[in-house]
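Pilot study result, target chain (247 residues):
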Amino acid sequence: MNKTVKVGAVSYLNTKPLMYAFKHGLKIEGMEIVEEYPAKIASMLLNNEIDLGLVPVAIIPKLKEYYIVSDYCIGADQEVASVCLFSEVPLGQIEKVILDYQSKTSVALARILIENYWKLEVVFEEASLNFRNQIKGTTAAVVIGDRAFEQRKISTYQHDLAAAWIAFTGLPFVFAAWVANKKLPDDFIYKFNEANKKGLENLNEVIGENSSPFYDLKKYYTENISYELTDGKKKGLETFLKFLPNS
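Predicted structure:
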């Protein structure tokens, strides 16, 4: 390739299988990787600071053009475990919901479920840096990623957003996908896809290299996260995008 392809990736536990090959020295000529949290990668893709990113799918309608690259994603066809609404009281008693700033998709999904599935009348609030300390009384919060594993040990009630979506729509959910903001060379896409695949073929090694004191990673990688971008997930993604105000 004549041009460097800048790739934005996420350093959460759920992305470790997709990044495994790159962490172990696999190089694609002309590719440069930067790691950030999901909303930051999304911003970079929107601002054309990167060419391809593992981004929250809620940003797709904001892109002038987009191409989903790779047969793999961060998805779920049952409980995802790491994206939940946490509270000290049952759903019907929640009055305020704090929205995690790290993922636009999880925040959008929470709003959709609260308004259309659970039908709760709540006040939404943007999260501050240490917002988990505010999960008290009738205040709940959406917590995602590795921090959600810890929160599962703290909060009395946890409502898994993927499981709720599936109950609501009958479809699996896609939290993040590899999205490009321009057409990329076919040979790059093939090599990139094969690199993603390599980690999923070596899950035992991925599990051995990572750890969580709060959750069983074997269960997480093999039961909670579903990495293949299947036709069902594509339909779930299409349905989700229809709920977004600017889609």
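One observation from the pilot: The chain has a mean pLDDT of 94. A full batch analysis is planned for the follow-on phase.
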